[in-house]
Amino acid sequence: MRALRFHSYGPPDVLRVDELPEPSPAPSQVKVRVQAVGLNPIDWKIRAGHLRLLPVFRSPPRGVGTDFAGEIVAIGAGPSTRRVGERVFGSLQPFGREGALADFLVVSDERVLPIPDDLDAAQAAALPVAGGSALQALTDEAHVGPGQRVLVTGAAGGVGHFAVQIAKHLGAYVVGVCSEANAAFVRELGADEVVDYARDDYTRRSDRFDVVFDAASVSSFAAASPVLAASGVYISTGGNTSALLGAAAAAVMARLTSRQRAIPMLLRNDARIWQRLLQLVRQKAIEAHIERTISLEEVADAQRAMETGHGRGKIIVRLS
Q: Where in the chain is CATH 3.40.50.720?
């Protein structure tokens, strides 16, 4: 089978399509023929080596990609709630060497969910990491409610475009920070205001926000604090190891010096949050915007573009 991998950390050029034996499912695992994979910033950050200092992180050679959708073609020994032929989606843990960008993968049957009949594979593959990050940040961490004011950086991106939709669904007044080229798109998502980061610095605004969700991981608690309400919350997705450590330090400092909070978010990427995302899809509260669909051979160029931070929604890889 084909599998996109890298054998050393580095730029997108280190990616290559290898031929590997097809995996076989162990007990409590399913084998999935992959149809679609959603690209996430964590994919290129892993490839570039930004997370290699984490103790649980396994070094190359490594596969690429976490979020996937496809069809179950085999089930490991023992009882299972899944069945051969079932359309499913899910997400791999990012710490191992396996990657979703392969013709086949094996995964615990607890890490897949059935795809609803009215949802295609591309839309399903777009949900777990990006949608889950936005949902966890705004509901579980910030507890956003009606009438609150929420600012989202990277509002046009994979996580950000879900965050704008979810915040509006929760009844918040939403300000999206993005480029001028993406302003109309962010307004269509439901943002009440759009800030062009090239022209205006949101940290110099005179108004205050209950939540600043730094979906693009381009700011900091220190920068956001002046525009936070007295008990406001700053949440960062943490772009790399140093960003995570910085956010953790900011969380301690915030508790010592004010009623404001800084939250370094670690995504609980599992079936429970995917179920909640599906409920929002059914309610038509969120929809994944697919910027484009590409082939396995085009992933390196797509990652190169993603590193610029100017994406709009999600990029999906289609596998035959």
A: 130-264
pTM here is 0.92
Cis peptide before 27 (omega within 30 of 0): no
- CATH number among 3.40.250.10, 3.40.30.10, 1.10.4100.10, 3.40.50.720, domain 130-264: 3.40.50.720
Sequence-distant (≥ 6) Cβ neighbours of residue 41 within 8 angstroms:
158, 239, 306
pLDDT tens for 161-185 read: 999 999 999 999 999 999 999 999 9
Cβ atoms of 209 and 175 within 8 Å: the answer is yes
CA–CA dist 40, 303 (Å, integer): 9
What residues contact residue 203 under an 8 Å CB cut-off, 6+ apart? 219, 223, 224, 226, 227
**3-state SS assignment for residue 281:** helix
Give the separation between CA 237 and CA 90, rounded to whole angstroms: 20
Query: Quick one: which of 130, 51, 59, 117 has its CA closest to 91?
Result: 130
Report the CATH number of the 2-126+288-318 domain: 3.90.180.10
Amino acid occupying residue 252: V
Q: What is the 3-state secondary structure (H, E, C) of 218-251?
A: CCCHHHHHHHEEEEEEEEECCCCHHHHHHHHHHH
Question: For residues 166 and 184, is the Cβ–Cβ distance under 8 A?
Answer: no
Task: Report d(CA 313, CA 120) in Å as an integer.
Answer: 16
Q: Where in the chain is the domain with CATH 3.90.180.10?
A: 2-126+288-318
Q: What pairing do the DSSP bridges indicate for beta strands 16-19 and 2-6?
A: antiparallel
Name the pLDDT band for 265 (thresholds 50, 70, 90): confident
How many CA atoms, within 13 angstroms, populate the side-chain half-sphere of residue 255? 6
